[in-house]
Amino acid sequence: MLRISDDILLTHLEVALAVAPEHTLIRLNADDPRAQRIARVDLARHLVERMRGFTIEGESNGGPGTQPCLFPGDLSPIG
Known about the structure:
mainly alpha; 3 helices; 48% helix; 79 residues
């Protein structure tokens, strides 16, 4: 498997955020925590859709078949 370069990933994420639905980005700063969570989920779905096809590799600390964590330093619950 090939690893995508940081520059390509950065550019792709920048473009994905630039074309994210405006209402989603606006709701990220909503006063209502529920609206903020919905906006985060919508933005995450948008990024997942944009990143399909990329192979993201990392060092696996588990056994065979374990999925490496994208953000190993941030394992706290979301929300």
